[in-house]
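Deviation from plan, reported transparently: JD8 complex.
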Amino acid sequence: MRIDVVTIFPGYLAPLREALLGRAIEAGLVELGVHDLRDWTHDVHQAVDDSPYGGGPGMVMRPQVWGEALDAVLGEEPARLVVPTPAGRPFTQATAQAWAAEERLVFACGRYEGIDQRVVDAYADRGPVDEVSIGDYVLVGGEVAVLVMVEAVVRLLPGVLGNPVSAQEDSFSDGLLEGPAYTRPVSWRGLDVPDVLRSGNHAAIARWRRDRALERTAARRPDLLDALPPDALDRADRAF
Ligand SMILES: CN1CCCC[C@@H]1Cn1ccc2ccc(-c3n[nH]c(N)c3C#N)cc21
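Because the crystal trials were delayed, the predicted structure below was used instead.
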């Protein structure tokens, strides 16, 4: 997979070259290009924004600069263009799984009040464009959202995670939140690891973990339970 990111703050994306993602890049599993939007300005001030038509607070990012940048970065190769915005469709684990099958992702990081809408409209004729949000809160720009989305996608690529089973057993992968996890010591500050996890009874351990996941999901994210397909819960689950 090739990932390109266009931003006025390239340094914000430096964490993508650290740790797991950095190793994936070094292993050739991912190619990453980070591009400074101001490289496509032509004025001495390197202006990327202007006042909003219709008035209102703040500034809007200029379509001309974005058009030159995305024409250059996208080139003729097909790619999914992703534009983070609080007004976008929710980015979910299902989105990450779908995008993990893409050959190319290009992320356009907005700032100020956002990017002139005509940029999204113009590129919608050239390929898939997704306006997505990572959650119901307001950030200052798209860069942090790109860090989140790139990590969620790249970790799903074959060869990136040491233990591929992990990705299958994630929270959300089976529609439920993950239950609690424990490691040594068996007793810590008067708190003990649940006996079942030390029993060696794998069926009992699996049942206990499923029950804790159901319990946590019901308590914290009942919406996820409601969204499960009818056959997702077996008789033992329903008994819980
Ligand atoms: C605050 N300021 C005026 C109101 C509109 C947004 C703007 C800031 N801003 C500019 C570009 C940009 C991109 C993404 C996000 C963003 N916020 N929350 C999310 N879940 C996001 C995503 N994904 C915020 C952005």
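The longest helix spans residues 202-220. We consider this an acceptable substitute for the interim report.
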